[in-house]
Amino acid sequence: MVTGAGGLLGWWVARELAERGYRVYGVYRERGGGLEGVEWVRADLEAGVPEVVRRADVVVHAAAYTDVDGCEVDRARAYRANFLATLAVARAARRVVYISTDYVFDGERGMYREEDVPNPVNYYGLSKLLGEGPVLARGGVVVRVSGLFGVSPHGKRNFGVEALLRLRWGEEVRAFVDQRLSPTYVPFLAERLADLLERDVEGIVHIAGEPATRFEFAVALAEALGVDKSLVKPARLSEARLAARRPRDSSLDTSRAASMGLSLPSLREPLGTS
Prior knowledge:
Layout: E1 2-3, H1 8-19, E2 24-28, E3 38-42, H2 52-55, E4 59-61, H3 68-73, H4 75-92, E5 96-101, H5 123-137, E6 141-145, E7 148-149, H6 159-168, E8 173-176, E9 180-181, E10 184-185, H7 186-197, E11 203-206, E12 212-213, H8 214-225, E13 232-235, H9 255-259, H10 268-272
Parallel strand pairs: 1-2, 1-4, 2-3, 4-5, 5-6, 6-11, 7-10, 8-13
Antiparallel strand pairs: 9-12
Domain RmlD-like substrate binding: 1-271
GO molecular function: dTDP-4-dehydrorhamnose reductase activity
Keywords: Oxidoreductase
């Protein structure tokens, strides 16, 4: 079962698992469908878990409230969606693979390993960190990811897609030079998550792309498209009016994933096919 199957990561994971021959239940809240071989289940996990959670051999819990500024403003919703719903899934499921985030770290040094102590600087990171506890307590897997980009099934734009479109249209892209993370191409991540399900893995694992600032990522995208790199303009987090503080460098060390054969290709590979 894949929760959040109507969203960016959940949709690609459900697709990958269905293509590998698994019987897949895709749980969605608002918009589902569009995938052959997936049985769609509409459910609001904040109100309770559907019965299929108890029947599934494994639940990939990708559903979350991921609007970082929204979580800061509406903390009650973030608590319900990212902690209470995860707690309910962890209690009901046989095995859970929980998608967490690099934002559990404060960003003071970067290249965080799985054993590093989390210290979130915003409520989104805190609510996702709270969700890790019940999953780990029941022997599940926590997969921390970072800077997801890729085509969404329902047209919702992430930074990578927004930058891609603007550059193709010859428009400027403003990108932070002082925020470093690990941009991760979602279709590749979905493949590694499917690989992980076929292995005996417990605990925390970081699966993410190569570290880069948002500015460096946008410049690499311009180079891949063959457009003028000067369209990418530097911006600074310190000058942005954001409701939630962002970690300065939340890049993830992926050595453990590499040791299990779960590392991702270089950043240039997905950009070269954009």
